[in-house]
Amino acid sequence: MSEDNRNRETAEDVRHLTADELQQIEETYDPELRFRVLAWPMTIVTATILFLLSCYHYYTAGFGIPQATVHRGLHLGVTLLVVFLSFSAFGRKEIKPGAFAPFGLPLYDWVLGIAGLIAALYVPWIYSELAFRVGNPLTIDVVMGTTLIVVLLEAVRRSMGWPLPVIAILFMAYAYFGQYMPGLFVHPGSSWTNIVNHLYLTSQGIYGTALGVIATYVFHFVLFGVMATRIGLGQLFIDVASALAGRYAGGPAKVSVVSSALLGSISGSSIANTVTTGALTIPAMIRIGYPRHFAAAVEAAASTGGQITPPVMGAVAFLMIEYLGLPLTTILTAALVPAFMHFFGVLVQVHLEARRLGLRGLSAEELPNAWKVLKEGWLSVAPLLILIAILLSGRTPFAAAFWSITACIVVLVIQQVREGGLLAGLKGTAHGVWEGFILGAKQSLSVTAAAALVGVVIGVVTLTGVGFKIAYMVTTVAQDWAGSVHGLLAFLPFKLMGVPTLTLLFTLMLTAIVCILMGCGIPTTANYIIMVAVAAPILGLLGVQPLVAHFFVFYYGVLADVTPPVAMAAYAGAGIADANAFKAGNTAFRLSMGKALVPFVFAFQPALLLVTDNFTWTAFALAFGGTVLGIWALAAAVSNWLFAPLRWYERIALVLSAILLVAPDLTATIIGLLLMVPVAARQLLLKDDAAA
């Protein structure tokens, strides 16, 4: 049956997937969730280790974190042990116990897990002597470092796939074979001993900032997201979004956008968000008449926005604290307008598509009552409000996480006691905390291993200086292109863009391409860390403010989740919608155009981030207004609808108008408006004629 025919199915033909089917889809497109089935003894052992790991982090968040290297080493060691207990080498879900597989785990998994634990704990163990070892490592130091690097490569391969391990291997090969590199990239090369010394014994490698942020901040917020979901906050967001947006044209699609924006405030996973909200919204979108691929794309595009939504921002907000040395409130403030623009861009397109297809909203009988939803579920919002209040007060993020997790536990107690009485309620709470703490630790396994391996990449960058070599090469190419294009524009009677502006434009374009390519198959957090080391210096050479440069590479790294051929969030949505995956990916990328446009806007107009240097409200108003109009014009062009069908030349005019409206030049903005006004005027006349 073709997709067009499937789109004509009746409401009864569109079924909701079961929990097992949704889990299968999530595991298919998210390797971080492909946990193996353990035999009974190991199920208890692994669960206990995970629970204790969460307890350790919960305690340290509230009562103090040990010395940094000790804290990071302990977190990494336990994580590596559990990774080899939880992820199989070749994707086999279950292995029968035997002589070569004690308790259902192959001997090599036991060896790798224990070796990773020992090698990770070795550096904290010799910490008092570390200052004497750095630069002059002992043989045992090199053996332990080599062991940890090998174990990390395999741990990340199992839990995330090949892309990041391959990148790490290539970077280490570059460090070792530097004298054989061509042209600009040549360097003296380093011995394996020196490479291990730098990556293992210093704070510039595995035990560096990336692992520190995961162990100090990210784990706590992953745990908070899990606990908040268990007390019903995620479902409350979906119900509130339904009550607010469901009644309007194309209601389920607008519910998808609003609920994903809300859910994104506590969840940093594009795929998990897609499956959680998409299980409800995608069938509803198909039921009222949206094409299947479009329904999948809407949910994927909206869910990917969760990673740029304050206060969690897919954990990147906490990395920015370390890299930029700015308070969290500054970073969250800077994220507000760009996040709004992304969801605004998706919302405009689903609205125009609904108008073009003549789709209805949901009836009152199909919608929850907003007052009833808030009355019954207001208590589940309390932990999030506590989190935000403590963050805004200036206290540490891990203190905010501690008190918000505590609030989740208190709410869980209240909910359970209300349902089953005191004794049953306490038992239910204990069970809920047990499962929540296990799941929270489980969801941090792959990101911890990835962060440690990213430390290898960062270590090579600092050891060889390759980041600045790449920056020089890219800016040189951009300058050559800018000079050529400026010459081609010389015929214009007015000056549209100078060479410096064109140089920055081409540099941004090249940087964006690199970020998207690097983001294919690599999680957002890891991609951001690599791009900060490799791509951000490119923008720094052209005078782009550090905060702006970091946001730019972050946004384009996130965009990879909806960019074919590795658009995992879109493919997960397509699995729920039973749609063509590649078509869903292309449409999701188109729906995410706000996220693609906005980084260019704030690169040229930093005022859009609210907290940059030389901020003025006038500059902000011009940037904000131009971006809103530009997104609307581009949405109309790609949707072939503004207030009525568009002619081909009107679509071209709107595309040009959108580009000029977001350009960093007043002349360009005026020209963009002049192109847009006649199209909008004719469309309004057509709308009035149709109404008459």
Automatic annotation (TrEMBL):
Bilayer topology term: Multi-pass membrane protein
Localisation per UniProt entry: Cell inner membrane
Membrane-crossing segments per the record: 37-59, 74-91, 103-126, 138-156, 163-186, 206-228, 331-352, 373-392, 447-474, 494-517, 529-556, 562-582, 594-611, 617-642, 654-677
CC annotations in GO: plasma membrane
TRAP C4-dicarboxylate transport system permease DctM subunit domain location: 149-612
GO molecular function, one term: transmembrane transporter activity
Keywords: Cell inner membrane, Cell membrane, Membrane, Transmembrane, Transmembrane helix, Transport
Leader peptide range in chain numbering: none
Chain's role: Part of the tripartite ATP-independent periplasmic (TRAP) transport system.
Protein name stated in the entry: TRAP transporter permease
